[in-house]
Specification:
It contains ten helices and 20 strands. With 475 residues, the protein is α/β, with parallel strands linked by helices. Helix 8 runs parallel beside helix 9 and helix 9 runs parallel beside helix 10.
Length: 475
Amino acid sequence: MGRHGWNSGARRWRLTALIGVGVAALALVLTMCTVWPGDSGRGDSGGTTTDGAKVHGTPPPVPGTPKAELGWGFTHTQYSVDAGDADARRRAEKLLSASRLPQIQHLMGWGSNNPEPTPGRYQFGEMDSRIDLVRRSGGTPVVTLCCAPDWMKGGKEGAANTDWSQQSLETAPSPEHYADFAKLAGVVARRYPDVKHFIVWNEFKGFFDDSAKRWNYEGYTKLYNLVYAELKKVDKDILVGGPYLVMDSLDPRATENASALRGPWGTIDQRSLDAFTYWNENKTGADFAVVDGSSYSKDDELLPSDVRATDKFTAVSRWVRRQTGGKLPLWWAEYYVEPGDAEDERDGWSEPHRAAVQAAGMIALVKGGTGTAFYWNPQNEGTKCAGCLWTSTELADGGRELPMMELISRFAKEFPPGTRYDDKVKVAADDVPNVRVLASGATVLVVNTLDRAIEAEVDGQSFDMNPYEIRWLTR
């Protein structure tokens, strides 16, 4: 089966087509890949089943009451550890088992097939594979309930008729099918009873009102409330969050759609704040709030610098926490610190540079009160993969740890759920502009944000740091 994968885009965090493949050609190839034995492509039921809600596999027991803060994890995308060379897969699974990070898998796309190509008939094979992977690696599974089967958004029924084009996948369910999508969410919850954390939809995809030039937050909130009710009906202990809204920022000098939430990094688009406010005031309930975004502006500008731009994460996190009265734990489903090029590739930075700015962004999230955040893993099949967590398991020697995995797994270990920013760490005055720090009772993380060596004095310790070095100190 094809991995129906789309990577979050650089400019508007939209779904982007695979590099070098036109949308039309990609849709044709992936449609061909979705033809199951016995499926003629005319909307019949070949390869699907009616027992979608049947429990899959052997779900591990969930100890105690699920927690609303999970700490630091990552999102599976088109390519992951459940495919490729057997030895490479074993190495990668061993790597994941050592870290036991929380892991997101989407319902449709990003490695999952069309879950309900015909009303009442299901195909969960690829999603089963991903959930099995999370189970084997001991991670906490999280499901993002996006995207929607074609028939819920004006398309054709049938597995062979799934339209994997960007335009189609970004289309939200039509209002008359909101209840059908909620019912599908309930099927997913019954199939994977060990999944206790669900995010409703992804980045308001398909909910922008072109005529009003604003987000259709009323429609999204109706969908969210129906899904929330359905999931709670399945299991009251399931934790549900939204709205997974992109916190776009504009140039600091912008006036159109500019908001009062601003800094040297820019100004947040007022339409995003309006959408969050409406959802927050009209939701049936929520166990956590979810946003996403980048440190750079919609014009891909890192203002006033790559590291200082991450202060946006702190400002947005604090704003969201204020809106919810501090009652809802805050999640970032995606966060980006490096703009992509015209092809949405992010390979312009060295790995030390990328890791240093990433670490600065994670520190900024904690500083703002974020308790859960997921790294969007840009995994591919090649020998080079900027910012990936492991080398491709499609390669015989793949499945090996890369610098970003080392950073995230260590960060998750040293700063577990509940970690709050400590502003009492002593940093020498001349080092303050050059380093970012985060401390727990036992550990201090120090990041040299410069492309040159420095002498640093932090938490009573003096030491030399290489360009973009990340240093872990024991207290």
